[in-house]
Every structure is written in C-alpha cells, then in structure tokens.
Amino acid sequence: MDSLIRAGVRSKNDLLAVRVNLMQNKNRIKNTEVSLKSAKTQLLQAIGCTESQLPGYPSVEFSQSGLYMEDLPAADDINEELIDYVFSNRNDLAAIKKSVDSAELKLKIEKANYLPDLNVGLSLGTTGTSYANDTSHFFTSGMDNVKGVNVTGNVSSSIKLGNKTKRGAVDKAQADYDIACAELNKARNDLKLELTNAAENIGLYKTMIEDSKTVLELQKSFYENEQKRFTAGYITVDNLIQQDQNYLEAQISYYQSLASYLNSVLEYKYYSAQMLTLQ
Length: 279
Known about the structure:
Strand content: 5-15%
Number of helices: 7
Oligomer: single chain
Number of strands: 3
C-alpha cells in the first residue's frame, strides 16, 4: 500500500479506510469470541464437566471427509418400529412407558379389590348308605350322596353395600391410567415430529452447505481479481472494502450452514437414541 501511495496510485485516505475496515473486522472477531465463550460455558453446564475435559479447538479448517452421513434419514424412515426402539433406549421416554405400566397395574389391583368376596365350602361324610352316579343333583341342591359318601358344598358371596371408597379408588386408578396413556401418546407424536423435522433439516442444510460452498468459491475468485484491479488503480478503495466484506460474509454463511447441518445431525442422533442407549 505504501508503494502505491508513493507512486500516486493511492492516497493516504485509502490507507486509512483500509485500516478502519481492518479494525472493524477485528472487533467482529472479538464479538464472536465472546459468543463462543458463552456457548462453551452453557455446554459445560449442560454436560457437567470441566473445561479441561473438553477437546481442543481444531488447528485447521473443517475436513470434508466423513462430514456427511452415509445414509441420510428421510421422513419415510420414521415409522412405528423406530419409535418403539427409541422408547426402549431413551431414559426420559422409557420412564413415560413405565409410568403407563405402573398405572395399569394399579388399576388392575383396585378392580380386584372392588370385586365381591367369594367363599367356597366343601365337606365329606360317610353317614349315607345310598349309591348314586348322577352328580347333577349335587350342583343344584348343594348336597348329595355319591357312592356312599355324603358330599356337601356351598358357594357364597358378600359385598358391602354402599362401599364408595373402593369404587372411588377404581375411578381414580382409571383416571390416572387414562392420563398416563394420553401422555404416552403425546410423547410418541412429539417424538415422530422431532425425528421428521431433524431428518428434513439434515437434507436441507446439506443442500445449503453445497450452495454456500459454491458461492464462497466464486466470491473468493472475484475478491482476488478485485485486489489486482485495485493495485492497478482501476477501482476505488471503497469497492475493494465492499468486496472484502462480501467475501467475509460468504465465509460466515458457509460455516453457519456447516454448523447448522452438524447440529441437525446431532439432534437426529439424540432423538433416535443413537448417541446414548439404556443398558
């Protein structure tokens, strides 16, 4: 720049404008570092570990190898079989399923307690001398002599009339079971929506990465050409600064798309119980 000023191609004001633009970009970097530190703190709080346990920052740019999932999930892949698998392998969802099982067991117990008491009696004696093979009379009268043996049987049931306590317990258990089933159905529907949304986002952000990468490559070539034209005195410093900002915005857009894609992959892996499973 100094040589261009001495040659009269550029003025000192051009140099000042470039320096101002440089300082503005440095401030943007500092603001980004603050946001990064805040996000890092939230991550530490969420996973409950110290900073020393986190992996370090990469010293090179993101590698494209292994970036994309081999088989991108589609909305058609979200079926009942996958939902059942997730409910069996995620703690939060497994707890909902267990609450339904518990409520169902409680309902069965309360219904059994509400049933009337049933008493069955059977007695044998040898006082009789008659002989008979027909037992149908025993079942109707409750007493008969079968092959010289007196057989006496009785069946009785009892229930307390007006016992509202047991009836109320059954009604409450039924209501608790219905609520638990409703929560389970809602959780299944929510999970299906979350998986479908994450799967669609993966495909969307993958396309955005490819598009933003193409834009970045074109903007880079354009910016390099504008630098040459600036050196030759064909464009003003304002034009160069504008192209500098455009190139920077293209880089930011690319990495934002990349981060959004990776985040959607993590969301899908979490929702589909591919990150942590119950043992």
